[in-house]
Specification:
Immunoglobulin-like, mainly beta, 19 strands, about 250 residues
Length: about 250
């Protein structure tokens, strides 16, 4: 029986969509925005060790949903990654296949997280819960699977589905948040976010702000110096966008 579990990220989230992911271990992962189109059964993920020591990696796939403004990651057998255990020599590369076992419903997008853990050499690859295996680094790569009749638009290509976002600001516990609801059929990836009013510009994220999955609502804290009646600007799935966001005092 598959047991649900929530992951707490232990190290690094490699989510930048424009270039291969790289961390202190010199492990490169690309692409970092893989998709499985409706007519395909699988997609490829490449891992490259640019360090001077071998690396041992464990690969798992989790279903990804967003509930009550929180990311949730649950064990799944809808998509499998092979091989699940990998050792890569210095300078070596490894091809990983991400294969869907279950098709996404027609016209819908399903979201997953591919988790790649770097395991210290000599440590057991897995064991009973609480065994205390320490991971050196953790990489989290989003994976999207599309049902029949649905294709997401890519940056620079107007064809395909796009997210439909509704923006507002909310206050809770004396703090202010930017809340984004996605009523579209595909996810929204928000990067380079900032608030602007006239010559006043307040950054929220130089790189990734976050994702909003279809039908989900997410929120992010507003900077304390955010101007009122600001314009929110961000790149959405690689395309620039803006919206007037009333910011309460």
């Amino acid at each position: 029986m598959v047991k649900s579990m929530r992951l707490r990220w232990l190290a690094l989230l490699c989510l930048i969509a424009a270039a291969p992911a790289q961390a202190a271990s010199s492990l490169l992962i690309w692409p970092v925005d893989p998709v499985i189109e409706a007519e395909a059964r699988a997609t490829a993920l490449w891992l490259e060790n640019r360090g001077d020591q071998p690396v041992v990696l464990q690969l798992r796939v989790f279903a990804w949903t967003q509930q009550q403004g929180e990311n949730q990651h649950d064990a799944t057998n809808e998509v499998v990654g092979t091989p699940p255990m990998i050792e890569i020599a210095p300078g070596g590369r490894q091809l990983v296949r991400l294969t869907r076992v279950t098709a996404a419903p027609d016209g819908q997008e399903r979201a997953y997280r591919v988790i790649v853990d770097e395991i210290p050499r000599g440590a057991p690859a897995s064991g009973p819960a609480g065994a205390g295996v320490q991971f050196q680094l953790r990489y989290s790569i989003p994976l999207f699977v599309y049902g029949k009749g649905l294709t997401a638009a890519r940056a620079g290509d107007k064809r395909g589905a796009t997210p439909l976002l509704i923006w507002r600001t909310v206050e809770q516990g004396g703090l202010r948040y930017l809340e984004v609801q996605n009523q579209g059929p595909v996810h929204a990836r928000l990067t380079g976010a900032e608030l602007r009013r006239g010559n006043v510009r307040v950054g929220m994220a130089e790189g990734l702000l976050g994702y909003v999955l279809p039908g989900a609502t997410m929120r992010w804290p507003l900077p304390g110096e955010a101007p009122s009646q600001a314009t929110f600007l961000a790149s959405i799935n690689g395309a620039d966008a803006s919206a007037l966001v009333p910011v309460p005092h």
